[in-house]
Amino acid sequence: MSNQPCHIAIIMDxxxxxxxxxxxxxxxxxxxxxxVVRTITTYCANHSDIHRLTLYAFSTENWKRPKLEVEFLMxxxxxxxxxxxxTYLSGNIRFEPIGDLSIFSKSLRKVIDDIQxxxxxxxxxxxxxxxxxxxxxxxxxxxxxxxxxxxLTVESVxxxxxxQHDVDLLIRTGGDHxxxxxxxxxxxxxxxxxxxxxxxxxxxDELEAIIKKFKxxxxxxxxxx
Length: 225
Ligand code: FPP
Prior knowledge:
Layout: E1 7-11, H1 15-21, H2 26-45, E2 52-59, H3 67-83, H4 85-90, E3 94-98, H5 106-118, E4 126-133, H6 135-145, H7 154-160, E5 169-172, E6 191-194, H8 204-214
Parallel strand pairs: 1-2, 1-5, 2-4, 3-4, 5-6
Helix pairs in contact: 1-2, 2-3, 3-5
The structure holds farnesyl diphosphate.
Farnesyl diphosphate (FPP) is lined by residues 12-17, 30, 33-34, 37, 57, 62, 76-77, 80, 129, 174, 199.
């Protein structure tokens, strides 16, 4: 029997380098990156064995970037969520953000709420965008929420997290081999795949090749077979 990657998570790295290699501003790479988000989400929505797709769109550390780039990313996100409503609804895709949204502008939070409410009844793929997300921050927020509820367990902490589902397959584009504070708890037994491909050039063909390889891996979860 082969593994199914029910929950795929992706660190979408390399937008800036891709743009710069073309003599363009980094924002051009983010713009192209957003198109790849749509392509990969639609592919996953069309494959019923993939139930969840979690994408690292903005980390708790990304605020350190130049102000103009941060502002561009906020606007791009807002525009994407507004424009892609039709993609979500026609693909039966439910949207659910993870991360601490309290820091975002009122208008961005409204757009996030709108798309979350509009897709709440969708029964296909669950697409999560990690927004102002950090794995450590998520665990600390969960621990604080449980502060008065006695001894913690793996189950109780897991249920208090933004993302309550283990990751099966975690992919990072852009050539680096690290988790960068993404889904630290949920990736405990994920299979990790790293590719040098920059996110704007990541394709359905490459995702299919990774999934094919994933299906051949023996996952033991600490057991013997
Ligand atoms: C990393 O590339 C990418 C990000 C920090 C942002 C990810 C954003 C997108 C894929 C586009 C917007 C997403 C949505 C959902 C609208 P980088 O900028 O670190 O690239 P580099 O490593 O080449 O500098």
